[in-house]
Every structure is written in C-alpha cells, then in structure tokens.
Amino acid sequence: MKSIAYTLVLLAAIPPLLSQEAPSKTDAKILGHVADGTPSPPPPPIRRLVVEAEDILESKTTNLGDQRVTVQRIAPIELPPIPEPTPPPNIDDPETQERLRELGKKYRDTQILFVGATVYHSSTFENAPRTLVRMWDQKTKQYSTFWSSANWNWLGGFGSFEGDDGQQYMLIMSHSNMDIDRWSDFFARHGRKFTPPKVPEIPAGDATFILNEGEPSESSLTALKTLHKIYNTQGDRLQAAYEGREAARKAREEYLRENPEKPKNLIIRQWRIDPKGQAGFTPKPAVTR
C-alpha cells in the first residue's frame, strides 16, 4: 500500500514536467483492455471475524421478509491499529526527481472526456444508426452536441485511448438507445404522434460527425476525430466486443430470471472497548479466517 500511495503522490507532480516534453508521433489507439463480456476473475475471499459461542453476550434476531437480521453484543475484541499514513515524498530528493522523470516518460498529461451518447435506431438510416453525442468541454466549460454516424455502443468497452500526436484521453461515457420506429408505432397505437429528432445528412463512407450546437474547442474536436478514427480502423474488434458484452448481459438476465437472488442473512456484531463497570478489562485479540 505504501508503494501505491507513493506512486500516486509522484504522479500528481508529473504534469509540470510533461509540459517541457513534446508528445511523440504515434497512431491513434486504444489503451488497455476492451471489455468483451468475459467474466472478471473472482475476488479474493473475504476474511471473516471469528467469534466463539462463549463470547456472544446477547443476541437478537429479526425477520425482515425473506431476510434474517441478527444483532449480537459480544465480548470486546482488540482490533489491529490503524496504519499511519504514508508521508509525502521529498520532491527535492535526487532519487525522487529520477523517479519523476521515469514516470514522466511513461505517463502523459491526460485529457478527460465526459460524454453522453444516445444511439438512435431506425429503418430510415442506412447501414448504421445515428448517435447524438453530448460532450463537456474542459476548456470552454460548456456542452457541445454532435451528430455521429458511428454506433457509440461499440465505444463503450474501453476507458482510455491515445491520439496520433501522443495525447492521451480518459473516456467517461454513459450511453443509451432509442428505436424510433418502435416509439412511433407505440405512440400511433395510443392515438398520439411521436416527433423524432431531426437528424442531419451525414456523408456516406467512414463514420464521421457534424456539429449540432455549441462552440467546441480544438482539443474536443481532436478527441472526437481520434475516436472516429479508432472506430473506423478497429470496427470489427469493437463490434465483436460489444456483441460479447450484450451476450453476457442477456445471459445474466436470463439466469437471474430463473434463479432470482434472495437477500442474504445478516449478522451485526458490536462491543464496547471499556464497558461500564469493567474498567481495566483487556480485550481479546481479533481472529479472522
């Protein structure tokens, strides 16, 4: 833990050093893993507090529907002390300076993209749906919206990418879907008219985007161009990963329909370090398994 905390403190000091180093020329690419529905490895087992029967001083159980909640008062247990916080590194130390330079070569100043995307489906769209993209601009402190011919569902499987100029981005995105034809039919069956969004004509060919409203900065436009370049060059990989995520989601929903989760019984244990009338009592050492 100390090593991790130390590294995080060093990373916080990197940006001033990065401004002195020009990004290297690279190809637009995804950084890290693309989620494809493959299950994550199971977490390590939880270490549970062991309490002997003779140390349970009082126990009361309440039934809350299908869940049983038990509150126990137990003999005091001596818990391990809270570790001292890691002191910040000395930035003037030559060894720290060397580590900063090494980290500066590995990590670059990252631009964070906050994006909301609504993917519209309709039989009137050829080959691909249309996506209304809403992006927060860090420089102008305003939102801008764009119409894109890319299926932004495919872009929901990764969190970091890099541009041609070496600039790194962190993508924080929420996305949803709307079927225009189905909504139109639903409204018509109830005697109402559904007004779909006005989607502009987008050139055929590779996926691209058109500004809808706002005045985005050049950095935001560069980020969007980079995402569309990744989409156009790695579309097969992104589509396969998306379909894998969807298959895993549907399988999970089907499993839960057939095997609905039941609330687990809960045990809450409490004690006093120095109970009234027992001054000087020595707590027992904690035992976990």
Please tell me about this protein's structure:
By secondary structure, the protein is α/β, with parallel strands linked by helices. Helices cover 27% and strands 26% of the residues. It is built from six helices and twelve strands. It has helices spanning 2-12, 15-18, 94-106, 180-189, 218-233, 235-258, and strands at 29-31, 56-64, 67-74, 77-78, 110-121, 130-137, 142-148, 160-162, 168-179, 209-213, 266-270, 284-285. The strands form three sheets. It has a seven-stranded mixed beta sheet with strand order 1-8-9-5-6-7-10. It has a three-stranded mixed beta sheet with strand order 2-3-11, with no helix packed on it. A hairpin with a 5-residue loop joins strand 8 (160-162) and strand 9 (168-179). Residues 1-24 have low confidence and may be disordered.
Helix/strand layout:
Layout lengths: L1 H11 L2 H4 L10 E3 L24 E9 L2 E8 L2 E2 L15 H13 L3 E12 L8 E8 L4 E7 L11 E3 L5 E12 H10 L19 E5 L4 H16 L1 H24 L7 E5 L13 E2 L4
Parallel strand pairs: 3-11, 4-12, 5-9
Antiparallel strand pairs: 1-8, 2-3, 5-6, 6-7, 7-10, 8-9
Low-confidence regions:
1-24
Query: In percent terms, what proportion of residues is strand?
Result: 25-35%
SSE order: HHEEEEHEEEEEHEHHEE
The beta-strand count equals: 12
Radius of gyration: 28 Å
Helix content range? 25-40%
First-residue to last-residue Cα separation: 22 Å
- Total of helices: 6
What attributes characterize this protein structure?
289 residues, alpha/beta, 7-stranded mixed beta sheet, 3-stranded mixed beta sheet, 6 helices, 12 strands, 26% strand, flat, disordered N terminus
